[in-house]
Amino acid sequence: MERPSSFSVLLLAAFLALGLAASCTRGQTPRPNRLNTLLTNELSDTSSLHPMDKEIETFLQRWCMKGASLAVMRGDSLLYAKGYGWADEEKGIKMSPGTLLRVASVSKLVTATGIMVLKERGLLDLEDKVFGPEGILDDECYTSAIRDKRYFRITVDNLLRHEGGFTVRGGDPLFSTREIMRRFNLDTPPDSRTLVSKLLTRPLKYLPGSSSEYSNLGYLLLSMIIEKITGEPYEDWMQDNVLRPAGCRDFHIAHNYYDKRYKGEARYYVQANDPEVPEYNGSDKMVTRCYGGNDIRALSGAGAWVTSVPELALLVASIDGRPHVPDILTMASVREMTRYYDDSTWSLGWSSTRPNQGWIRTGTLSGTSALIYYFPDGECWIIVTNTSSWKGPRFARNTKSLLRNLHQKYSRAMPERDFFYDSI
């Protein structure tokens, strides 16, 4: 598919211009200490921002959200980090900046970053084929399962841009584990290798690269590509080669149940009228949708990362082309990830990089909603909740409106400081 060569020139130019003053800090590295143990709500309890706090609290009450965590960056400086409401109401634990939260499809931005690191190391090219004898996933169990030869045309770039030819007609396979087990006569939930080998027997919806349809399966395949090329588990390699180099020490792949949560992780909630659902693994048990309704862990790089909002902000600061926090990617890779083609072409990892509107990444799962909004003026606002909205993915529009409003009204009231580097 032919694409124009223009990209978000205005946005990148603004980022570079605003970053020049901080170029003397290029030798700095992200704080060696854990942000999650240092940041507290009190550090961002600024009287001039109390009206903003009230607006956020009103928003959470209106949408029946138990809690949320917010971070605000300007020019790679973390100005604000605060939790609102409950992290775990039953235990009386308030939300704090260090609370760990599922970030849903924001995980795709993390995975895309890992792919770009491999590309910079010369270990893959975005035009590399995914399947077949010349593909990355060239295992016999995949190649022998393929009947539709169009699979052999899928590239890494196709997966990044949701152009692999996959469809969710009949249900997203990563959220239909019980149906997959029934259809393929499986006694237990399939691992990723088994799942993919079964799904490859199906025909594609369209020729790869000729159209697009949002695909969690595509980003699961990207996670598997990382494992195949590196010879390491996806989570381990990403932590060692992407996240820790960015200064992020509390990124983890989610567990499915409350009793398996990480230290400091929030409890997740659904709306009061959301009925219990059958457990994903085919048992006869009925469960709360966010705890066993789906196999969250199996989403891997498509939607399973857990982290704090300040650490998520630090990762964004490490892939945005600004010099204050040293990037883990080259400027060429930043440009490639954020290049805008048209409204029907996805950017790499980002939901949208439309010129003059900033960079946006959204994520929604049962029990959480996440949004990164990187404004053209260089401010980045990130919010993650620990509660589902009855609007599901459409809730992102309401959250975008909230952050646009808060950015417009309270940007000038943000303190001049940097929690990434300043003493806390």
Describe the structure.
The chain is of the alpha+beta class and 424 residues long. It is 29% helix and 13% strand. The protein contains 13 helices and eleven strands. It has a six-stranded antiparallel sheet, sandwiched between helices. The chain has a three-stranded antiparallel sheet with strand order 4-8-5, with helices on one face. A two-stranded antiparallel ribbon has the order 6-7. A hairpin with a 2-residue loop joins strand 1 (67-74) and strand 2. The radius of gyration is 21 Å and the shape is globular. Residues 1-27 have low confidence and may be disordered.
Please tag this protein with its features.
alpha+beta; 424 residues; globular
Secondary-structure map:
Blueprint: H1 9-19, H2 35-38, H3 50-62, E1 67-74, E2 77-88, E3 93-94, E4 101-102, H4 107-120, H5 140-143, H6 156-160, H7 177-183, H8 192-199, H9 216-230, H10 234-243, E5 252-253, E6 277-278, E7 286-287, E8 305-307, H11 309-317, H12 331-338, E9 359-365, E10 368-374, E11 379-385, H13 395-410
Antiparallel strand pairs: 1-2, 1-11, 2-3, 4-8, 5-8, 6-7, 9-10, 10-11
Helix pairs in contact: 3-13, 4-9
Number of strands: 11
How many H/I helical runs? 13
Beta fraction: 5-15%
Please list the strands of the largest sheet in the order they lie side by side: 3-2-1-11-10-9
Overall geometric form:
globular
Q: Distance N terminus to C terminus?
A: 51 Å
Q: Can you give the helix content as a percent range?
A: 25-40%
Tell me the series of helices and strands, N- to C-terminal.
HHHEEEEHHHHHHHEEEEHHEEEH
Radius of gyration: 21 Å
Residue-averaged pLDDT: 92
**Biggest β-sheet, characterized?**
6 strands, antiparallel
Structural class: alpha+beta
Low-confidence stretches: 1-27
